[in-house]
Each structure stands twice: as C-alpha cells, then as structure tokens.
C-alpha cells in the first residue's frame, strides 16, 4: 500500500511541516508588511497634523488657518484621498460622518464647526467624520468620500483658549494594492514551492532508499545453495551498516548450522550404513544355501550384534537431538549434589572398568548445583566411560570435585595415550572420531557432543586438556547452586 511506503510518509511529513511553516511565515510577513505600511502612513499623518497645528492662529477671537503653504498637490485634487480638516468646538452627538455632499450633523452643529478644509474636500462639499476629542492623537481606518477607505489621524489641541481638532487623512488604495499583490504572490508561490518540495523530497527519499532496495535484492538472492555469500558493507550508508554487519553475522551462524546439519546427516548415514551392510551381508550369505542350525544361529547372532550397534547409534542421535532441542528445559531443575552424581556414574560403569582392570577413585568435597539429575548423570557417565575405554589396561581414572570462581568443577583424569593436538579441537563435534580411536574402540562419536550440550544447557561447559602419551583430563564446570 502507498500509505505504508517510507517515501510517501517522508514526503507527506515534509509537506505537512513545510505547509505549516511557510503558511505561518507568509501570514506573519503579510501582517508585518501591513503593520509597516500603515505605520509609515500614521507617521506621515502625525507630521501633517503637527504641521497644520502650527498654522492655526486666533485672531480677534476667531480661529484662522493659513492654507497657502499646504493647500497644494494632492490636497488640491478633488477626492484624491489626501484630505485635512480643522474643526473648532466639541461634537454634539455620535460619529455621523458623511461622504460626498452630505454633512455630519455634529460638525454643523452650533457646538462644532469646520473652520478649514482641504480643496480636495471643499470642491465636492465633503467632510471627514468627527465624533470625539482626542488630545493624544488617534489613527484609524474609516470610509471617506465616495466610500473609499482612508487612514485618518486626528488630534485635539487647545489654542488660545479654543478647542481645535485637526484631522488629516491619506488614501489606503496603494497600501491595499501592495498587500493584495503580496497576497496573490503568496498564493502563486506557495503551491509551486510545495509541489517542487514534494518532488525533491520524493526523489531524495528514493535515492536514499536505493541502497535498501539493493540490500533487499541481495538478501533475497541468498539461498541454501549460496549461504557463503555476504553483503558488501563497503559504501553502504551508515544507517544500514549495522544491519548489514548483523545480517552477515547471522548468515555465518546459519551457514555453520547448515554445514553442521550436512555433516550430521553424512556422519549418521555413515554410522548406520556399516551395521546395515553387515545385516544385509549375513542375510545374503545365510540365504545363499541351506545351512544347519548352528550356522543359522551364528548368523543371527552377528545380525543381532549389528542391530544392537545400529540401535545404539539411533538412540544416541535421538538423545543428541533432544538435548540440543532443549527438551530437558530449565523449569524442572532442582538442587543436586555433584558428588552423588559422580558416585552414581561410577557405579553404572564399575563393571566396564573391572573388565579392563581400570581403577576409579573420587576425591574432593560435595558441591551443590542446580539441574536435571538424569541428564547430569549421563554427561558425567559419558566422560568417565571415555576415560575407561581409551585408558590402558590396568590404568586408573581420577575424579576430583572442587569449587572455583562460582562454579562446581569436576575433573576426570585418565592414564591413557592422550589425544593428538589436531584432534583435540574437534572431539566435541558430533560423530567425530580420530583415526586411531576408530580402529581401537567402537563408538558413535556422539558422547562428548552430548556432554557439551547438556552442560551448556545447565549454564556450564566442558573442556579437554591432553598431552601425547600422558593421559587426558576433562574439566566439567557447572554453576554453584
């Protein structure tokens, strides 16, 4: 949908902000222009009123005005909009201004009379509206002769004991034309600015988001067939750089996971192929001709051994899947004694150790941990079982418990031949078995992988230390309860 588009949202947001900002600025400037022009007119009218006030004289008790100095120019042109008027006395009623030849009743009353006016008024027998006395001077917009708007300034003076009001006005025609032109200019410019801004912002957003489109296309092109491909972070905008780096990190983990699955399937098929081939071979040979009961029994025993081995591999695979799938969970954990777990594991493997003449000893103190008892017994048993199987005849296995750095530590030392350095880094991989151990001892290669998964699920870990011909040490760590 267009409303969900980032480009649309950016454009709409920019236009909304631009509309409010430019409209507000335009209105502000309009009223500022009006205030400045009206202020200039008022200043001019103030000067005119003061000038006329200086020309008013009182002779023989009468108010007289020498008009020769000012009755020129626009003041002499009928209905020019430039008028002045001198009134003696006080108004007798409300402001009843006239235009054209009609005269205000208060101006022609006995209490107030026009003693002088500009030729622009006198020639059409018109007067300016007069209603109140203003000793401070006032400025207002009124309708003058011919119903044309005027800016009127008036001030009342006391000259020679007489009350004299002087009025001067100026047409607002030019001011209104200026304001109308400015208003029309705004109405033409603002839509054009909005349109150009919308286009510019849209193109800018499109250009800025082009990298995101390329990013999306590259991500879409990555499949399980090319998991090794990575996004090129060079040249990406800084906003997309963390996303690209995190995506590449995720792809690396995903590639490792897929590669692990491939290895798992390959190794599992290899582990299952051997017993399956044994079963198939004995079946073919046995069924090739008639045999006596002893031969059939021998064949069935071989087939049974292969089935047992296959079943063991399958159980290990399922166990590995359950552990890595988190089926053990954490909510069922309870406080356990790691010493008791080690003792149980030794008890389970006592017969196996006796067969090889291996002695097992446990030292150290009880350590409290939290976890799943069956899983932890399995993990410890797997490590001890390896220590027995890969030990020398008549060797020994030393188990020690201690606490270090907030962890319960269980170490298992054997007196076997040790593990080669090149194999040491891979022994916790599923199905991994070194060439030497594969030839000497049967196994699935899943035991240590399961050990690490169980310990990591409990917040711990396992590591291996070994020296050629000097035995192997496995160190299991679990958080103290």
What does this 3D model show about the protein?
- With 481 residues, this protein is α+β, with helices and mostly antiparallel strands.
- It folds into three domains: 30-177, 2-Layer Sandwich (Beta-Lactamase); 241-323, Signal transduction histidine kinase, dimerisation/phosphotransfer (DHp) domain (Helix Hairpins), CATH 1.10.287.130; 329-479, Heat Shock Protein 90.
- It has helices spanning 6-55, 119-122, 173-208, 210-221, 241-286, 293-324, 338-348, 350-356, 373-389, 421-424, 435-440, 447-457, and strands at 56-59, 62-65, 83-89, 112-117, 138-143, 149-159, 162-171, 334-337, 359-364, 368-371, 396-404, 407-414, 461-466, 472-479.
- Strands 4-3-7-6-5 form a five-stranded antiparallel sheet.
- A hairpin with a 2-residue loop joins β11 (396-404) and β12 (407-414).
- α7 (338-348) crosses α9 (373-389).
- It is rod-shaped and about 165 Å long.
Primary descriptors:
single chain, 481 residues, alpha+beta, Beta-Lactamase, Helix Hairpins, Heat Shock Protein 90, 5-stranded mixed β-sheet, 12 helices, 49% helix
Helix content: 40-55%
Through-space gap between termini: 55 Å
CATH superfamily of the largest domain: Histidine kinase-like ATPase, C-terminal domain
| Class inferred from helices and paired strands | alpha+beta
Total helix count? 12
> Which CATH C-level class of the largest domain is it?
Alpha Beta
| Apparent shape | rod-shaped
Task: Indicate the CATH topology of the largest domain.
Answer: Heat Shock Protein 90
Computed over alpha carbons, the radius of gyration is 53 Å
β-strand number: 14
Total individual domains: 3
Order of helix and strand elements from N to C terminus: HEEEEHEEEHHHHEHHEEHEEHHHEE
Strand content: 15-25%
pLDDT < 50 stretches: 94-110
Label the CATH architecture of the largest domain. 2-Layer Sandwich
Biggest sheet details? 5 strands, antiparallel
Domain HAMP: 206-259
Transmembrane segments: 12-31, 185-205
Membrane topology: Multi-pass membrane protein
Protein name: histidine kinase
